TrEMBL record:
<feature type="domain" description="S1 motif">
    <location>
        <begin position="1"/>
        <end position="67"/>
    </location>
</feature>
<dbReference type="GO" id="GO:0003676">
    <property type="term" value="F:nucleic acid binding"/>
</dbReference>
<dbReference type="InterPro" id="IPR003029">
    <property type="entry name" value="S1_domain"/>
</dbReference>
<protein>
    <recommendedName>
        <fullName>S1 motif domain-containing protein</fullName>
    </recommendedName>
</protein>
<dbReference type="InterPro" id="IPR012340">
    <property type="entry name" value="NA-bd_OB-fold"/>
</dbReference>
Length: 68
């Protein structure tokens, strides 16, 4: 899942394997990830809470951690 910080428009990735509260699967047709137990989902454009997990200045990459 990709995220963006609205204040500065920085973009980065939240790795699905790092979201540990449940098992999510990708629904490519609907541009969503779906929680298999609780049946909650996140679709393109949904607002979520993230924090910066790692920054690689050599590769110009930002990894985020999912908070909600």
């Amino acid at each position: 899942m990709y995220g963006e910080i609205e204040e500065n428009k920085y973009e980065g990735m939240v790795r699905l394997r790092d979201i540990t509260d449940d098992f999510y699967v990708l629904d490519e047709k609907n541009y969503a990830i779906i929680d298999q137990r609780k049946k909650k989902n996140f679709q393109l454009g949904d607002e979520v809470q993230i924090r910066v997990k790692k920054v690689d200045l050599d590769k110009w990459q930002i990894d985020f951690a999912f908070l909600s």
